[in-house]
Design goal:
The structure is a single chain. The chain folds into two domains: about 5-165, VC0802-like (2-Layer Sandwich), CATH 3.30.2130.30; about 180-400, Rossmann fold (3-Layer(aba) Sandwich). It has helices at about 20-35, 60-70, 90-100, 120-135, 190-200, 220-235, 245-255, 260-280, 300-305, 320-330, 335, 360-365, 370-380; strands at about 5-10, 40-50, 50-55, 75-85, 105-115, 140, 150-155, 160, 165-170, 180-185, 205-210, 235-245, 285, 310-315, 385. Strand 10, helix 5 (about 190-200) and strand 11 (about 205-210) form a beta-alpha-beta unit. Helix 7 runs antiparallel to helix 8. The chain is of the alpha/beta class. It starts with a strand and ends in a 16-residue tail after the last strand. The structure holds adenosine-5'-triphosphate (ATP) and magnesium ion. Magnesium ion binds near residues 185 and 343.
Length: about 400
């Protein structure tokens, strides 16, 4: 009997990763995996060559670990493998053990060898282990469409054997791409936009503008709940809540009705920009999609953009609503997003808002507003909440202290 041990092997997409970048990337991925696997019974996460190994304790929850690894950004694929000594007898025996309990009539063995001192070449190992499995199980070899694949990886100190590859999300580990400030509204689109940026390795900080007491607190509760869901991939997440009612009041009394939404959005952008500086975010992110609503025509996007000093990223700009909805369902935000709430942007808004407001029109309308004072007022009312990552499901939590 040879000594064997179960563990997870995690592979990431390596394209373009070299030298220092690679170490930075791997360390961040390992760190995020530890966060994601809290309380699942793993004992150690360590980096080894091009992969990360998760060692398991005696009571490790394998199904739970699989579920969570499926949501960690930056993993290309992963497997639950068996480690054994790297000599051929141990490998054969372990491979046979790994096939126990699986029904198959055809099989293929594939070997990768990073230890070039191993006495057999990769094809020789595959052939020898394959012949042994065929002899012991009665299965046939099939190089093209095998029902069972058995992978063998040979390193200097050990051999790893597995029969199932699980697909990861891809992307990059959260934190390797800097920080962004996401304008999160409580609607369907902005959480999906956030998720896309998180997937590309950006750490998301959130900002939400609320109109309470003109509206109820539903948007606040929704935004906190959405942040809980996004924290499953973003981990510890900061949410900045900005009282917006007084600014809307000033816009409503001081400017022509058709421009209101755009003037709201320009005010939001100014304030978001200030918060971005505060938290060191290098870009703003919105859920805008081209021409989805009146405020999202090119002309109007340009009028909003004109205010910004840092890039406004719009990851959904080319997506159809149906595609965004599908994504929202996949990532688990759709249900919360579609709960009723009054959007602050729909407050005091005319039936036919301007679809082509010129910059000159907007700047003229803003002459009646004390922009600097309004921004200061919003900044004075700014509140910060921290959402810590947890896997306790997403029942709607009430937030008593949000306002
Ligand atoms: P969403 O589904 O994200 O609410 P939407 O289709 O309703 O988007 P708009 O209302 O025009 O579109 O808002 C466009 C974007 O502006 C939103 O995706 C979001 O990024 C930002 N935004 C709108 N309202 C708010 C708000 N109250 N707080 C923070 N950001 C907001
Ligand atoms: Mg909205």
């Amino acid at each position: 009997m040879h000594h064997t041990e179960e563990l997870f092997i995690i592979h990431y997409a390596e394209v373009g990763l070299k030298g220092k970048n690679r170490v930075f990337f791997e360390k961040r991925l390992a760190h995020n995996i530890k966060l994601a696997l809290r309380d699942t019974g793993y004992t150690e996460v360590r980096r080894l060559h091009d992969r990360i190994l998760v060692q398991l304790g005696p009571r490790a929850q394998l199904a739970e670990i699989k579920k969570r690894l499926c949501r960690v950004m930056g993993i290309a694929h992963f497997e639950l493998a068996c480690r054994t000594e790297n000599h051929i007898a141990a490998i054969k025996e372990t491979a046979l053990q790994q096939t126990q309990g699986i029904e198959f009539e055809t099989l293929k063995v594939e070997t990768k060898r990073s230890d070039k001192t191993f006495p057999l070449t990769s094809p020789e190992i595959s052939a020898e282990v394959g012949a042994y499995l065929i002899q012991e199980t009665g299965a046939r070899a099939d190089m093209r469409h095998p029902e069972l694949r058995c992978w063998i990886e040979i390193t200097q100190n050990a051999a790893y054997i597995y029969t199932e590859k699980l697909q990861g999300l891809g992307g990059l580990p959260v934190g390797v791409s800097g920080k962004v400030l996401v304008l999160l509204s409580g609607g369907i689109d902005s959480p999906v936009a956030a998720w896309r940026m998180i997937k590309r390795g950006a750490k998301a900080v959130f900002i939400h503008f609320y109109s309470y007491p003109y509206t109820d607190k539903a948007s606040l509760e929704k935004v906190m709940e959405l942040t809980h869901i996004l924290a499953e991939s973003n981990y510890r997440s900061a949410v900045y809540l900005v009282p917006f009612a007084a600014l809307q009041q000033a816009i409503v009394t001081g400017t022509p009705a058709p421009f209101r939404v755009l003037l709201y959005r320009r005010m939001m952008t100014r304030i978001a920009q200030r918060v971005a500086t505060l938290v060191d975010a290098e870009a703003l992110v919105t859920g805008e999609s081209l021409a989805q609503v009146a405020s999202q025509t090119l002309t109007n996007l340009r009028a909003i953009e004109a205010i910004a000093e840092i890039p406004i990223l719009r990851p959904l700009i080319g997506d159809d609503k149906a595609e965004i909805v599908e994504k929202a369902q996949q990532i688990g935000t759709f249900e919360v997003s579609t709960l009723p709430h009054q959007d602050c942007c729909s407050l005091f808004v005319p039936k036919h808002p301007a679809t082509r407001a010129s910059l000159a029109d907007l700047e003229k309308a803003e002459e009646n507003l004390d922009i600097a004072a309004l921004v200061e007022m919003a900044m004075d009312g700014l509140e910060k909440q921290i959402v810590t990552f947890s896997y306790f499901g997403h029942s709607l939590r009430r937030i008593e202290n949000a306002v």
